[in-house]
Amino acid sequence: MPAPIDPLLEGVTCFLGSLDSGRVSNAVIGAVPGHPLLARAMAEVRPRQTYGPVDRAGTGPLLLERLRHEVEGVTVFEPEVFYATERESAQYAFHLSVRSWKDAAGLREDVARAERDRATAREELAHLRAEHELALAELEALRAGRSGLWPRVRRALPRRQLARLRRRLGR
User: Fold this and answer.
1) Distance between CA atoms of 142 and 136, rounded to whole angstroms?
2) Which residues contact 154 (CB under 8 A, 6 or more apart)?
3) What is the pLDDT of residues 93-151, one digit of tens each?
4) Residue 161 to residue 154: CA distance in whole angstroms
5) What is the mean pLDDT of residues 60-75?
6) Distance of CA 112 to CAs 99, 117, 118, 124, Å?
7) Nearest 5°: phi and psi at 16?
8) Nearest Cα to Cα of residue 39 among 70, 7, 17
9) Which of 15, 35, 68, 111 is most solvent-facing, going by the fewest CB within 10 Å?
């Protein structure tokens, strides 16, 4: 069950949450009425007029990141409080990023990076599968008594581990 937020906000007049990058985000904001951070943000925001690239310095996180350093009385909570990326580590909320602020070039860059990461992961998986198959073959050879490895295993293992291994291998 989620924890009540009241103890977290005791004595706080304005709060933002930080991301893993250390910058603040604009998805969770709280303030008492008339707090200077929100007044400044509302006065300086440059809203979008159409769909397309976002004026990142004039809206959202970059605007708040700049203002939080210029206005007193702003509490910034660690990422785990509001922007945990996994439900299990979240204290009050977790972040499901959809990258709606990205323009087409930014999305293409993210897709290219994801494809490179996927290729690397596939190579690592192929390597691990090959190692696994080799380990299975060695185990089968040990079970069948066809391996020259058994004398080295016998010398290297403590008696208890050797006894356990013998039971498993049926020796």
Assistant:
1) 10
2) 162
3) 877 666 666 677 877 888 898 899 999 999 999 888 888 887 887 787 777 766 666 67
4) 10
5) 93
6) 15, 9, 10, 18
7) -135, 165
8) 70
9) 111
Q: What is the DSSP secondary structure assignment for residue 87, as one 8-state letter?
A: G
Answering whether pTM is above 0.90, one says no
Domain boundaries, the chain: 14-101, 107-169
> pLDDT at position 27, please?
87
The pLDDT-based confidence of 1 (bands split at 50, 70, 90) is very low
Element spanning 25, H or E: strand 24-31
Name, in order, each residue with C-beta under 8 angstroms of 130's C-beta and a sequence gap of 6 or more. none
* CA 10 – CA 146 distance, rounded (Å): 70
- Contacts of residue 77, Cβ cutoff 8 Å, sequence gap at least 6: 8, 15, 16, 17, 18
Do 15 and 9 contact (CB within 8 A), yes or no? yes
